[in-house]
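can u do me a favor
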């Protein structure tokens, strides 16, 4: 989880309870409207939707099932910036387990700081080491044939698989 994600303990517990209750493998909390995030669906889930099927989760705060971590923990070594890892992890989960990726609309977190790609200390560190997150994400998408377009994290058109 990013170091600036604010979520209370009961919210974290509800995430794990929801994952277990619905037999999901990859979920995340929704974000407050004033949170910093590139993917609009995460901040604005469909009204009334407790669970919203997603095409992918965002790397800032994924909740991963034990089996998905055991099977796909290797994806975290594929990048340094984190960009593209979320899309790869989600693609692998969907391919192996089906549509078991969701946004939990009634658990809300806040991403407190903006992502300062140009000036943020993490991104400055990456640049000093010759790492461009966009290039890294593009390479991961190319290597594993993963969708990294602007709508890569969106509402999934198929219902969730609770089996």
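np, heres the sequence
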């Amino acid at each position: 989880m990013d170091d600036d994600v604010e979520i209370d303990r009961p919210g974290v517990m509800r995430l794990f309870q929801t994952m277990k209750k619905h037999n999901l493998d990859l979920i995340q909390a929704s974000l407050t409207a004033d949170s910093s995030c590139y993917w609009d669906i995460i901040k604005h889930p469909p009204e009334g939707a407790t669970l919203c099927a997603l095409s992918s989760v965002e790397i800032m705060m994924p909740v991963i099932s034990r089996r998905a971590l055991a099977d796909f923990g290797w994806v975290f070594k594929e990048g340094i910036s984190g960009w593209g890892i979320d899309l790869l992890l989600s693609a692998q989960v969907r391919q192996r387990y089906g549509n078991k990726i969701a946004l939990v609309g009634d658990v809300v977190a806040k991403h407190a700081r903006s992502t300062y790609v140009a000036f943020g200390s993490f991104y400055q560190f990456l640049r000093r080491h010759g790492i461009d997150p966009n290039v890294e994400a593009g390479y991961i998408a190319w290597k594993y044939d993963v969708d990294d377009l602007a709508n890569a994290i969106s509402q999934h058109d198929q219902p969730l698989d609770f089996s």
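The helical segments are 9-21, 40-43, 66-72, 85-97, 121-128, 133-144. hope that helps!!
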